[in-house]
């Protein structure tokens, strides 16, 4: 077998492994509120999320093109495959570590940080597209702030509308509505997160000379969508526990508001071809909703630890990818 083809096969395997891990790491965020409020049983939530993730993943490619060409131009890298291997190994390690400790860290931050670090060490600072990298980071930074504000506003509106209704009746109705918003959130997760693996595979294909454009081949779409759906089917109970029970006590109306807010931010980013962190968007929406419900109800110490993880993910992933590149190549 041709050596370059074998190495490309390793890249594709690692990219799909990253997507699989992303499936049980990040999708847990999408269904955490609906599971914690018992709007859906864990089994039904996971099956629904897997299906909606798959559908979302195969319908859009804009984010994949951004990932594939904004951080660096793969056609100008002589060792692009090596860079991608270091990137994926670093991102996978960080995802598994944060999953093990039940911290809803960002797969997007891990991947972008690792890619930037691997390009910097493997090809030099001049090969890193700083403007494209900064634009992506800006989207990753501002999206959770926007999600927080939207979550707060949506919850305040719902509090005003249903202020004089029976809490039992309100929550019963919103428990049904949560099924819809959980499905919507899982769909939007697929439209954005699954494309990151697609973008990395396309980056590798261009680097290896197997194609000269950033269009995502259909087999890449289906492979990435399937890997994420399979990962989703495994579940991510550690993350679900953190998101659904430890930040604040979530009622169905809160879960509805958080899901709707998070999904709107993620899908808007997808339409703008911006890779955002679904973890950040969903967590920030939950924090915004919790603040609107009662500011003191939010466990801000836990929220603070989550935010610290967000802040350190990009630099740690970049350093880790650079170190792995040095060791392997």
Automatic annotation (TrEMBL):
Topology term for the membrane: Multi-pass membrane protein
Spans traversing the lipid bilayer: 46-68, 80-101, 107-125, 137-162, 302-325
GO cellular component, one term: membrane
Gene Ontology BP, a term: phosphate ion transmembrane transport
Localization in the cell: Membrane
Keywords: Membrane, Transmembrane, Transmembrane helix, Transport
Pfam families, alphabetized: PHO4
Single GO MF annotation: phosphate transmembrane transporter activity
Family matches, as InterPro entries: Phos_transporter
PANTHER family: PHOSPHATE TRANSPORTER
Protein name as catalogued: Anion permease
Annotated source species: Paenibacillus kribbensis
């Amino acid at each position: 077998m041709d050596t370059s083809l074998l190495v490309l096969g390793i890249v594709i395997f690692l990219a799909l492994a990253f997507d699989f891990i992303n499936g049980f790491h990040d999708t847990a965020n999408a269904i955490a509120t609906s599971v914690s409020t018992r709007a859906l049983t864990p089994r039904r939530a996971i099956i629904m999320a897997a299906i909606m993730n798959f559908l979302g993943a195969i319908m859009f490619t804009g984010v994949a093109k951004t990932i594939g060409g904004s951080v660096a131009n793969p056609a100008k890298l002589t060792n692009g495959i090596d860079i991608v291997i270091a990137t994926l190994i670093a991102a996978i390690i960080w995802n598994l570590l944060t999953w093990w400790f039940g911290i809803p860290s960002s797969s997007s931050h891990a991947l972008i940080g690792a890619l930037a670090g691997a390009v910097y060490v493997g090809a030099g600072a001049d090969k890193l597209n700083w403007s494209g990298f900064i634009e992506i980071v800006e989207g990753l930074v501002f999206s959770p702030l926007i999600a927080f504000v939207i979550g707060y506003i949506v919850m305040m509106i719902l509090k005003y509308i249903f202020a004089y209704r029976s809490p039992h009746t309100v929550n019963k109705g919103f428990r049904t509505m949560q099924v819809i918003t959980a499905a919507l959130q899982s769909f939007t997760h697929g439209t954005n997160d699954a494309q990151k693996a697609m973008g990395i595979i396309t980056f590798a294909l261009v680097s290896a000379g197997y194609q000269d454009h950033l269009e995502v081949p259909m087999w890449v779409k289906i492979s990435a969508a399937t890997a994420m759906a399979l990962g989703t089917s495994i579940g991510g109970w550690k993350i679900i526990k953190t998101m659904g029970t430890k930040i604040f006590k979530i009622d169905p109306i809160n879960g509805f508001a958080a899901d709707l807010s998070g999904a709107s931010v993620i899908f808007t980013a997808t339409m703008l071809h911006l890779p955002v962190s679904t973890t950040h968007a969903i967590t920030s929406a939950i924090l915004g909703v919790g603040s609107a419900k009662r500011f003191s109800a939010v466990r801000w110490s836990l929220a603070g630890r989550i935010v610290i993880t967000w802040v350190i993910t990009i630099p740690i992933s970049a350093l880790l990818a650079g170190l792995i590149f040095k060791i392997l190549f």
